[in-house]
């Protein structure tokens, strides 16, 4: 499916934000040491008496991964997180490649999902997951567990993890090449757990900042990064009787239909001792509770007797912010706007962007020995856009084609029964690559897709006649 959609895009040219900016050049052409020609950091001033100081604001997956990489790379790293036991509203589904790439221990993964039920508006259920190899699965985590683990690992690598609320940042008048003027961060220390009141006001001087403070990012505001369209996602954690929980042992459900969401999907994801039931929408935010009710209603037989133990909601960015970088400040994860359409996935992309941004700083500063400049941080954006642009585009197209009406969703679920579609979808999800397809199977899939969509349109016309 992904490769088919990708081909639809083959004619488009990819111009990244980064390409619209200047490239770093060297005063003298050197042909033998190419590695250094593009390294602006080499010509930036040396940092003396200390190493480069970087603040990471926000300790979710983006911030935890960034801080660990910075600390391991010789950077004096401070991570500011407002709530150490933060329980980020999230389905908690992570791809298999994240477990390997981030070396996650298996005991922080609540469930290994090997079966996904895709359920159409008319409640036709298609089981996907038949093509998975024995070692393959979708991980289900609780965010309070995953985030704390990544933050602890950053601390173990040498990051100074502060429990505080970031308030604002003073940006130096000139943060351009050659400048080593510091950014001054204002934050309140230890947030009182009992009174909810803020602690003492403090300031912190650093050379560079990574904004990993999520969808409502204050770092983004401080650099005038601009806004993005967002979805609102709602989720209830429901503790269901243990015999009902057996059904969700290694199974997750996705519900599609106008009732559960006009532009997204509803889900039931299994956790250690409960299920997370939720939905999201961009276009009908005011109806979110009604949509959530419908999602719960659709799953009613399977969650009967359940007790709601937590209700949560949060924005999900729909696309990157107009600006993700300014001087020595870069945004990562939800702060930058890296959630995919269609699947609403952002945990892996948050951790990955945090790590990629930190790597660019470590490399540009030669392990903390030199000042960095915007050109160093821009390398992260260039690499990011080059690596993930196709994935975002494919999922954008899929959402536009298949989530637009109930007949189109019926067609989508029908297509999901195809083994080839399942393989392509799972491979793309689990390994975060737009998988190149087999030409013959792609052709078969194209014919089937057109068949499904034609049937869907015919069905819609018939339904319109009925409703006239
Ligand atoms: C209901 C719902 C379900 C979802 N389901 C999934 C899913 O199943 N799979 C998936 O991959 N993605 C899912 N997502 C998306 C995913 O949750 C996000 O993409 C991901 O959390 C982004 O990580 P992050 O580190 O960028 O930001 P966040 O996880 O939002 O972390 C930001 C951190 O910064 C801290 N912070 C914020 N402001 C400040 C401040 N001023 N000072 C100090 N600290 C601050 C916060 O406390 C938080 O810990 C879901 C989202 C929602 C809302």
From TrEMBL:
Record keyword Metal-binding present: no
Matching InterPro entries: BchP_ChlP_pln/prok, FAD-bd, FAD/NAD-bd_sf, Geranylgeranyl_Rdtase_fam, Geranylgeranyl_Rdtase_pln/cyn, Geranylgeranyl_reductase
GO annotation terms (biological process): chlorophyll biosynthetic process; photosynthesis
Keyword field: Chlorophyll biosynthesis, NADP, Oxidoreductase, Photosynthesis
Reactions catalysed, as given in the entry: phytyl diphosphate + 3 NADP(+) = geranylgeranyl diphosphate + 3 NADPH + 3 H(+)
Catalytic activity, EC: 1.3.1.83
Protein task: Catalyzes the reduction of geranylgeranyl diphosphate to phytyl diphosphate, providing phytol for both tocopherol and chlorophyll synthesis.
UniProt protein name: Geranylgeranyl diphosphate reductase, chloroplastic
Organism annotation: Rhododendron simsii (Sims's rhododendron)
Lineage: Eukaryota, Viridiplantae, Streptophyta, Embryophyta, Tracheophyta
């Amino acid at each position: 499916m992904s490769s088919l959609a990708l081909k639809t895009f083959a004619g488009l040219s990819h111009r990244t934000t980064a390409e619209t900016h200047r490239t770093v050049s060297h005063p003298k052409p050197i042909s033998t040491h190419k590695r250094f020609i593009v390294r602006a950091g080499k010509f930036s001033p040396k940092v003396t008496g200390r190493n480069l100081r970087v603040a990471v604001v926000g300790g979710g997956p983006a911030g935890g991964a960034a801080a660990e990489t910075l600390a391991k790379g010789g950077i004096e790293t401070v991570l500011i997180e407002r709530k150490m036991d933060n329980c980020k509203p999230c389905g908690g589904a992570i791809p298999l490649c994240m477990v390997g790439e981030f070396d996650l221990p298996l005991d922080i993964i609540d469930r290994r999902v090997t079966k996904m039920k895709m359920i159409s508006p008319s409640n036709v259920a298609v089981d996907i997951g038949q093509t998975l190899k024995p070692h393959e699965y979708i991980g289900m985590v609780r965010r309070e567990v995953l985030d704390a683990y990544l933050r602890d690992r950053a601390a173990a690598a040498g990051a100074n993890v502060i429990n505080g609320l970031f308030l604002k940042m003073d940006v130096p008048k000139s943060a351009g090449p050659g400048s080593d003027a510091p950014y001054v961060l204002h934050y309140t220390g230890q947030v009182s757990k009992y009174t909810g009141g803020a602690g003492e006001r403090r300031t912190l001087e650093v050379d560079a900042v990574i904004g990993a403070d999520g969808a409502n990012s204050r770092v983004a505001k401080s650099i005038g990064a601009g806004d993005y369209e967002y979805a609102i996602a709602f989720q209830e954690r429901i503790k269901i009787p243990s015999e009902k929980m057996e059904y969700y042992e290694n199974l997750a459900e996705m519900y599609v239909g106008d009732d559960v969401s006009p532009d997204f999907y509803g889900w039931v994801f299994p956790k250690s001792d409960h299920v997370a039931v939720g939905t999201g929408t961009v276009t009908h935010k005011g109806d979110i509770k009604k949509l959530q009710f419908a999602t719960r209603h659709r799953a009613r037989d399977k969650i009967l007797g359940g007790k709601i133990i937590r209700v949560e909601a949060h924005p999900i960015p729909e696309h990157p912010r107009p600006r993700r970088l300014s001087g020595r400040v870069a945004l990562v994860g939800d702060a930058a706007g890296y959630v995919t359409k269609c699947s609403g996935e952002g945990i892996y992309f948050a951790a990955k962007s945090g790590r990629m941004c930190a790597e660019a700083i470590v490399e540009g500063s030669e392990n903390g020995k030199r000042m960095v400049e915007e050109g160093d941080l821009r390398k992260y954006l260039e690499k990011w856009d080059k690596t993930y642009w196709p994935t975002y585009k494919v999922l954008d197209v899929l959402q536009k084609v298949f989530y637009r009406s109930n007949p189109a969703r019926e067609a989508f679920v029908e297509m999901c029964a195809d083994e080839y579609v399942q393989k392509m979808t799972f491979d793309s999800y689990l390994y975060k690559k737009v998988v190149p397809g087999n030409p013959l199977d792609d052709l078969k899939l194209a014919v089937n897709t057109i068949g499904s969509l034609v049937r869907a349109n015919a069905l819609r016309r018939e339904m319109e006649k009925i409703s006239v």
